[in-house]
Amino acid sequence: MSGGLVPRRRYTPAQQEAARFVGELDAQRQVEQARMAAMADVAMYGMGECAYVQKAAEDYARLCPGSAQALAFIASTTQMAIANTVRRFGSDLS
Fold first, then answer.
1. Which of 15, 33, 52, 94 could cross-link 11 (Cys pair, CB 3.0–4.6 Å)?
2. Where are the domains of the chain?
3. Per residue in 44-58, pLDDT tens?
4. Which of 47, 33, 34 is nearest to 85 (CA)?
């Protein structure tokens, strides 16, 4: 190596603007990916909770057949509340 100075590469204003734009697009992409992942996580959790509530209602109905209609109503109401929570979360993120 000669130990001399290496000339600095100069970028035109258009190249600088393009690089800035690409950086902004990447940042926006990351935000959107995080938003989608959060919505998917909440949706998956909500579906799991709905399945759990349904299974619990069916189990209790087998133990006490006379309460089957009330248990189905409670499960349905709870599942709708969970679905509304998931919907609100998705709306808040958009």
1. 15
2. 13-93
3. 999 999 999 999 999
4. 47
User: Phi-psi bin for 3: left (phi > 0), alpha (psi -120 to 50), beta?
Assistant: left
Whether residue 39 contacts residue 90, with contact meaning beta carbons closer than 8 Å, is answered with yes
Q: Please calculate the CA angle 44-47-53 and round it to the nearest 5 degrees.
A: 145
What are the pLDDT digits (tens) for 2-22? Answer: 667 777 788 888 988 998 999
Name the pTM for this structure.
0.73
Beta-carbon-side half-sphere exposure of residue 87 (alpha carbons within 13 Å): 6
- Residue whose structure tokens are 């309460």: 67
Residue 49 DSSP symbol: H
CB-count exposure of residue 83 (10 Å: 0-12, 13-18, 19+): middle
Q: What is the DSSP letter of 94?
A: -
User: Is residue 1 scored above 80 in pLDDT?
Assistant: no
What is the rounded distance in angstroms from the CA atom of residue 76 to the CA atom of residue 89? 20
